[in-house]
Amino acid sequence: MSGWGALLGALAALGVLIVVVRVRAIRRPSLQTRVVPFLRDLPEVAPRTRPPTSAAAGVFGPVLRSGADAVERVLGGSASVRRRLERAGSDRSVHDFRIEQVQWGLAAFALAAAYGLLRTLGDPRSAVSSAVVCVAAFVVGVLARDNRLSSQVRTRERRIIAEFPTLAELLALAVGAGEGPVLALDRVVRRSGGELSAELARVLAEVRTGQPVGAAFDALAARTGVPLVARFAAGIAVAVERGTPLADVLHAQAADVREAGRRELIETAARKEILMMVPVVFLVLPVTVLFAFYPGVLGLHLTTP
């Protein structure tokens, strides 16, 4: 019995030792956690995670890729798609976007096919029209994904325009306080968030990898789809290259954006003036007339013999 007790005690001690060693290994900080605090001057970059590969992707992946190639041959315009993907802030490639278009088309095709099957069960003569509807649904799904990309571009550009005056003023304040363009950009990027801040973080990363400040802002002006931001980036590049006072340039840029926003708001209100009159004419005015004349009409009915 004493031998069995010693053996069980040794096994228990070994198990506890393995657990303790494993817990210490799990709780030990990673190499990135230990090294990054000593690299404070480098921009923080989110780690790229590889998307998980599912069984469906493995089975239907070749079919989707073939469909994406067919859509690319039919539609073309890969340069326009690549430009819009860049303006939308997406890291997808043109081929990935074509695969998404095929997926949207197949989803629309499945819905139309289900409706056509139910319709064909009730009326067998509608099989041809149902097939035509399915093909049209596939085309509509493919084009809807392209339209969705354009909508994402417009939404992102509106966010950039809304963020621009504040970030330009912050840069002007930092530069006016005596900081250089790179330090001012770093301060603004660390204390802000948004689409334009992400673009400025990309510019900062390019500057810290050895690209000149003017060239980095020229690249920002080239890849952005917002004319105001393009003029802002070009103005900073010219100011850095020629030694123009940068704070004055930034203040002027922010003032121009605010003035452009006011003009756009006035133009939008002017365009929607007729639309704003629709509820007044067709809802408020009839109710007002009804409240004004109905008591008189009722009184006439009561007094008339």
Automatic annotation (TrEMBL):
GO terms under cellular component: plasma membrane
Every Type II secretion system protein GspF domain range: 168-291
Topology versus the membrane: Multi-pass membrane protein
InterPro entries reported for this sequence: T2SS_GspF_dom
Keywords for the protein's UniProt record, in alphabetical order: Cell membrane, Membrane, Transmembrane, Transmembrane helix
Subcellular location(s) per record: Cell membrane
Transmembrane segment boundaries: 6-25, 102-121, 127-144, 274-294
Keyword Transmembrane: yes
Pfam families: T2SSF
Stated name of the protein: Tight adherence protein C
